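It is worth pausing here to work through a concrete case rather than discussing structure prediction in the abstract. The textbook approach is simple: state the sequence, then state the predicted structure, then interpret. We follow exactly that order.
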Amino acid sequence: MSQVTKEGRKKRGLFITLSTVLIALLILVFGVSSYKWYVKRVLRERKRRLYSSVRVEVLNAAGVPNLARNVTLWLRRQGFDVVYYGSAREKLDKTVIVERSDENMKNAKLLRDLIGCDEVIKEIDPDRLLEVSLILGKDWKSYFDFREEDFLY
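Step two, the predicted structure:
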């Protein structure tokens, strides 16, 4: 009888140890994922606040119907304050970001970092009530994931 009791105690001790380790791992995984979610949320909110101070105009120089409108909707979802969208006077092959208000081009750099467009120029214009112009060229698909079939009309 004492042999059975010793084996039972060993199995019980092993079960308790494994259960404790499993619960500790679950708590660790839950804690890490909660922390990552929280950090991601905080960073997203900081970007939204930063983006919301940037007034943007979006101009379609690609000749694609409703392109400026759809990019405007996307930029607004990211947090930018798009104050105007429309068509450019002439067509362009390349997309260009134009800084309108800051000598250090901080506003244009924010947009550049978001969409990945390296064509950034500075044309300061204090009469314009915006910080950045985004002129969409024929290469617009390099910077935006959506397809023309998905456009809202």
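Step three, interpretation. The helical segments are 2-52, 67-78, 106-115. The chain has a mean pLDDT of 89.
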